[in-house]
Amino acid sequence: MKVLVIGGGGREHAMAWALARSKQVEEVLVAPGNAGTEREPKVRNIQVGAEDIPALVQQAREQEVALTVVGPEAPLVAGVVDAFQQAGLACLGPTADAAELEGSKAFAKAFMARHGVPTAAYRTFDDLGAASDYIREHSTPMVIKADGLASGKGVEVAATKDEALLAAERMLSGQAFGDAGARVVVEECLQGEELSFIALVDGEHVVAMASSQDHKPRDDGDRGPNTGGMGAYSPAPLMDEQLYQRVMDEVIRPTVQGLAAEGRPYQGFLYAGLMIDADGNPRVLEYNCRLGDPEAQPLLMRLDADFAEVCRAALEGRLGEVDLAWDSRPAVGVVMAAAGYPGSVERGDVIEGLDDAEATGCKVFHGGTTFDADGRVVTNGGRVLCCCALGERVSAAQQAAYRGVAAIHWEGVFYRRDIGARAIARETG
């Protein structure tokens, strides 16, 4: 069968790579894809934007696509799954109504309050004066979030009231995130360790993916501005059986059941970004309605199952029959970013050493890349590459990933040097 992957980032490269490994899959189309997807066996880019919904439906029909899998959040929130369903085409992902869980942080917080899902105390504002009064009355640190989609960057952790007031002003004025900041959520700053919990849902049944942990701050030691993610590893040693059961019982199942009860049945990948406090209690920081990026890259490296069949089972309501298998080895993924990220970045810098990196045994997933007029791979975004590797221990996987990183260069490249450090500290005791 032919499969279509919607999106052009590192998550979508990993999804296309995993789908192409299936014996059921004859060809994977990626819209629009990147230089990395174009270089994969059995994979072909099609020049259609991820948010051009009518053109995506048309391509799926013309190419006789049997299964479409959606990568990024923007087309989900815009209703790409609804459009495919109306056209009688199989498309894995939540409808626009269900995807509001990610599309509006204010909706997500109110939903959690209605269904008893543990999260931080919060208030929602669309008026700067009211937000400012609330900020002045409450202690810091606090978190200011743009309500709408902001590519993983619409969150400011404010250490002082002045920082919080400035963040609220920048968002509500439209200066920072445009319409996405027309409403803001102001919430308490939770303390603890972050954990990514991703499950696949078929509307009723839930199958958890392997655990993973993301690194949001730009700089080593979890310092600097928030990003879409500077690296990830799987599994996360923090996730033991007791915590797994609590997350399923207190977060994932109440979320799926609550959405169904509100007439928004959920199908697709459901991501809960969690904070685990010192006593092991989970609370939800955010929901995402798709696989995480960069979590997808190490997760899909470890998946020891037919990804195409798993996606079909989710679409057909058969996840109750699915038992996901995982490579026992940990995987680490290190994001290589362009200078200036998460702000504006230069594009078009020639990337050297890609083949050398893969020769080390590392898998290089492309995020922001394209080809120049001479056919060379060049930068085309903020998070450019994610170098992933497996190892017998997290420390070995980390070393292997950084060997790949060391082989690659372009002008202004930067990356964190401590991806996986918490897991390694637990390994060494």
From TrEMBL:
Cited SMART domains: GARS_A (SM01209), GARS_C (SM01210)
Gene Ontology molecular-function annotations: ATP binding; metal ion binding; phosphoribosylamine-glycine ligase activity
Pathway stated in the Swiss-Prot or TrEMBL entry: Purine metabolism; IMP biosynthesis via de novo pathway; N(1)-(5-phospho-D-ribosyl)glycinamide from 5-phospho-alpha-D-ribose 1-diphosphate: step 2/2
Class of the enzyme per the UniProt entry, highest EC level: ligase
Domain ATP-grasp residues, every copy: 109-316
Annotated region described as Disordered, given as residue ranges: 210-235
GO biological process: 'de novo' IMP biosynthetic process; purine nucleobase biosynthetic process
Keywords for the protein's UniProt record, in alphabetical order: ATP-binding, Ligase, Magnesium, Manganese, Metal-binding, Nucleotide-binding, Purine biosynthesis
Keyword Lipid biosynthesis: no
Similarity comment: Belongs to the GARS family.
Protein name: Phosphoribosylamine--glycine ligase
Biological source species: Halorhodospira halophila (strain DSM 244 / SL1)
Species lineage: Bacteria, Pseudomonadati, Pseudomonadota, Gammaproteobacteria, Chromatiales
Name of the gene this protein is made from: purD
